[in-house]
Structures are given as structure tokens and as C-alpha cells.
Design brief:
Polysaccharide deacetylase family protein; DUF7033; 2 domains; Glyco_hydro/deAcase_b/a-brl; 476 residues
Length: 476
């Protein structure tokens, strides 16, 4: 069964990409593109013998933008994004009284009273394809957007935050809406099944707390354990680790939580990914410490692989617009991985500090030979920066073409919870479980980043983390 998608002229590469992700990648449907005078998008079924023949229509919103206004604020959703009820009962995660924000395709001043109507065909009153494209390409981040001190696009500047949907995978909700309409028109259509998954990743910025530290710096860390963290046990373990390091034993190092992390993942049948940073700035102003030059860290790369977990790249600070450093850091990691006997079909990772510079970073990753990126979560919020809990191939908005590189789901970072959001442990647990529920609702993937060092030093932090992984993987 092949869908025939009739679209107006213009934005050919962009329309084809959006259809490819939504229909081929996510729903697993066959389709072909034809052009018509419009208005809007009209989907029919090839060789449809029913009478009357079914059809699904959608408004053209983002792709009706004048070429001169493309990638300008004129193409953004309205300042006051309307939330409109679905209005029709379907099978699937959306209920009739659920409201969804309409990014494109409906006038904000006069929004429709419901998102789906059926008479003489099934009609969607929201630009599903433009909305998915807008979200998964991070369109708004290419405009003259505000940046934080690490040159990152803050969640606070996003349409998701302004319209209040950063906790909702809106692209996935749009796809469910389209699927429901297609199934209403042609009940015999079948889609690719998907299921809820958990993807746990660990950025290895600082594998050993003793690495690159002078005695004075270690003394300052000990003082911080006692005064700020009020944790004499941690200070004692740190002091003991400093002594054992002299004998070449890194086992007791307070940052050496790797076996604990792998134990927790294995307990729940998960394969963690460890993304290794090449150089770390352990002291402001001092030359970066060559983390991957340390023999214990090189062994760790092999150890992770031998335990069945994934090794990946944590591209260094400031490399997010630098194709040469991206490539050379990957080459260095791959050389160590080879030396350690690491064999992997797929290589990916994440930018340090979640720095990301529009399609340039993606383009550099693809050029370096990487298969996937997992950078696009918010630093200052938890939630759905790309609007989806599904993996997808990315699109280069500047060169107007799809790339082979894929983006993996990532919604929760450890330091966001306690640091940026200042949540108590209980509130943090509730916040992550709310994101997990959305991923489960849309049968997608919850992506979690937990550093080996940041929020995992004390027994209480370790228990909290183990409880979190148990909770998000529990049968729901
Ligand atoms: Zn990092």
C-alpha cells in the first residue's frame, strides 16, 4: 500500500526530508511525492478502490513561508501559540480532550476548535509536517537567538518554553495525530511497531579525581568535601585515594564509579554508552590535562567494551564548530579503542557542555565519520529539545540537504536536576518520571546522561541513581 502525497511547489528537499522521517522512518509506510496546485497537502492511497476514495488533508504552514522569509523570525510560530483539542476519539495515546499547541498552519487569532475533523475525508488543522521539521532541525536555533555564556541556546529562549510544551514530545504527538487520520481513512494500513526504551549515557569528563591535580588543588577539594559538601566520609575516601595512587592503584578514586554504573545498567538489561573526553580543564587557566593519555583511562576504554558497553566520543570544549578538532579527537579515541580491542559497528557521542552550533556541528560529525550524535537535550531544563523521543537522521538547514548522521534521544542530564533547576532528590525523581511517562506514552526512548563524577560521589547519591534506573525501567 503506497500513499500518494500531493504537495504544493517549493521547499522540495525540506518537504521530502520531513516525509521521509515521518512516513518512512517512524511509521514505516511506503509513499511517493507528487505536486499539485494546492492549497495544502493532500494524501491519497495509490490504487484505492473504495468509494468514495479516502483522503487526508493538512494545511501548509512552515513550507508556505516566502523564500525571503526562510530562516527569519517571520517563519517562527506566532507569539501566542494556540492550544487546540484533538476533538476526535482515536486509538493510540491521544485522547479527544488532549490539547496540542499549533505551531504552524492555523491563524493564532482564529484557531480551529479542534485538530481533526472528518467529512468527505479526514482533515487535520495543524501543519504536522512543518511542525516536525521545525522541531527536529532545531530551526529556531539558527536564527539570531540569545546564547548563554557557553554559546548555548537556552531553553528559556525556545518556542517550547514560551508556549509551555518542553515536557511534551510534540513532534511525536503530531505524528500520532497523522497516523490516527491515516488509519481512519484506510483501516488496513499498518505501521512499524515501536516500544519504550531507556538509553543511558555517561560523559567521562574527569575519570579520576587525582588526574592533573597538584597537591594544593587536592587540598582544596578536601576542604570543599568538608565545608561545602559536609561529607567527612568523602574527604576520607579522597585522602585514601591520593595515597593509593602513589602505588599505582586507582581503585579507591572517588570518581571511579564505572563498575557501579555498569552494574546498575546490567541489572536492568541496559547497555550504557561511555563518551570519552580527550582533554579536560581541571584548573582554570592551566593547560588542559590529557585525560586519554593516562594508561588507567586507556584501560578503562577496553574495560567498558569487555563488559559489553559502548565506547563513544565526548568532543572537547569549543570543538562544536571545529571540523579539524572533531576529526582529530575521534581519530585519537579510535586509536586507543583499536589498541584495546574495541570493535563497534556504530560510533557516536556528545559535545562537552552540550555545545551545539546548528547544522555545522552535525556536518562536522558526519565528515569525521561519526554515525550519531546525542547532544540535543537542554542544559537548563529537562524535556524534549528536538520534540521527539525517537532517533532520526538529521537535516542540514544551511546546505538544504539530509545528512546520514542520526540524532539519538536525550532529555535528562544529572547536573540539570540539582544544579540548574535546584530540585530536591524527591522532586528530581518526580521530574524524571514525568519525562519517562511521556516517552512511554509515545513508545519512544528516554535518554539519560549521568556523569561518573558529578552526582555520584556519596552513598546516598548512588542509591538515588540506582533507584532512578530501577524506576524508569520498571514495567509500566
Ligand atoms: Zn562533558
Amino acid at each position: 500500500m503506497t500513499l500518494v502525497v500531493a504537495v504544493p511547489d517549493g521547499y522540495g528537499a525540506e518537504r521530502r526530508y520531513a516525509l521521509d522521517v515521518v512516513l518512512s522512518e517512524w511509521l514505516g509506510l511506503d509513499w511517493r511525492l507528487v505536486h499539485h496546485a494546492g492549497p495544502g497537502v493532500r494524501i491519497t492511497l495509490a490504487d484505492d478502490t473504495s468509494d468514495p476514495a479516502g483522503c487526508v488533508t493538512l494545511p501548509d504552514g512552515l513550507f508556505a513561508t516566502a523564500e525571503d522569509d526562510w530562516l527569519t523570525p517571520t517563519a517562527l510560530p506566532p507569539a501566542d501559540v494556540p492550544w487546540v483539542p484533538v476533538g476526535t476519539t482515536f486509538e493510540g495515546p491521544l485522547r479527544a480532550d488532549d490539547r496540542l499547541p499549533v505551531l504552524h498552519g492555523a491563524p493564532a487569532a482564529d484557531p480551529p476548535s479542534r485538530l481533526v475533523t472528518a467529512d468527505d475525508g479526514v482533515h487535520l488543522h495543524v501543519d504536522v509536517l512543518g511542525g516536525v521539521f521545525f522541531l527536529i532541525t532545531r530551526y529556531e536555533e539558527l536564527l539570531d537567538a540569545p546564547r548563554d555564556r557557553y554559546d548555548r541556546f537556552p531553553a528559556a529562549a525556545s518556542v517550547a518554553e514560551r508556549a509551555g510544551f518542553h515536557g511534551l514530545p510534540l513532534a511525536d504527538a503530531y505524528v500520532e495525530l497523522l497516523w490516527a487520520a491515516l488509519q481512519r481513512a484506510w483501516p488496513r494500513l499498518t505501521r512499524t511497531p515501536s516500544s519504550y526504551q531507556v538509553l543511558i549515557t555517561h560523559d567521562v569528563d574527569d575519570p579520576l579525581a587525582t588526574l592533573g591535580r597538584t597537591p594544593a588543588l587536592t587540598a582544596r577539594q578536601l576542604a570543599a568535601d568538608l565545608v561545602h559538601r559536609r561529607d567527612p566520609g568523602l574527604a576520607a575516601r579522597r585522602a585514601r585515594a591520593v595515597l593509593t595512587v602513589r602505588r599505582g592503584d586507582h581503585g579507591p578514586d572517588v570518581n571511579n564509579t564505572f563498575d557501579f554504573l555498569m552494574d546498575v545498567s546490567e541489572r536492568h538489561g541496559l547497555r550504557s554508552a561511555f563518551y570519552f573526553l580527550s582533554h579536560n580543564e581541571v584548573r582554570a587557566g592551566a593547560p588542559p590535562c590529557h585525560v586519554l593519555g593516562h594508561p588507567w583511562v586507556r584501560d578503562l576504554v577496553g574495560h567498558v567494551h569487555r563488559r559489553g558497553h559502548e565506547v563513544g566520543l565526548h568532543a572537547g570544549f569549543g570543538t562544536y564548530r571545529d571540523p579539524e578538532r572533531t576529526r582529530s579527537e575521534l581519530t585519537a579515541l579510535r586509536a586507543i579503542a583499536d589498541e584495546q580491542g574495541v570493535r563497534q559497528e556504530v560510533w557516536g557521542g556528545r559535545q562537552h557542555y552540550l555545545q551545539w552550533g546548528g547544522p555545522v556541528t552535525w556536518r562536522n560529525w558526519e565528515a569525521a565519520g561519526l554515525d550519531y550524535d546525542c547532544t540535543l537535550g537542554w542544559a537548563d531544563r529537562i524535556g524534549f529539545r528536538t520534540g521527539t523521543c525517537r532517533e532520526y537522521p538529521v537535516f542540514d538547514l544551511e546546505e538544504r540537504k539530509p545528512l546520514r548522521l542520526r540524532e539519538r534521544p536525550f532529555q535528562v542530564m544529572d547536573v540539570t536536576l540539582a544544579g540548574y533547576l535546584g530540585l530536591t532528590p524527591d522532586a528530581a525523581m518526580d521530574a524524571v518520571l514525568a519525562v519517562a511517562r511521556e516517552c512511554r506514552r509515545f513508545q519512544g526512548t528516554l535518554g539519560v546522561l549521568w556523569h561518573n563524577d558529578e552526582v555520584l560521589r556519596t552513598g546516598r547519591e548512588k542509591r538515588w541513581y540506582a533507584d532512578l534506573v530501577a524506576a524508569v525501567t520498571a514495567a509500566g
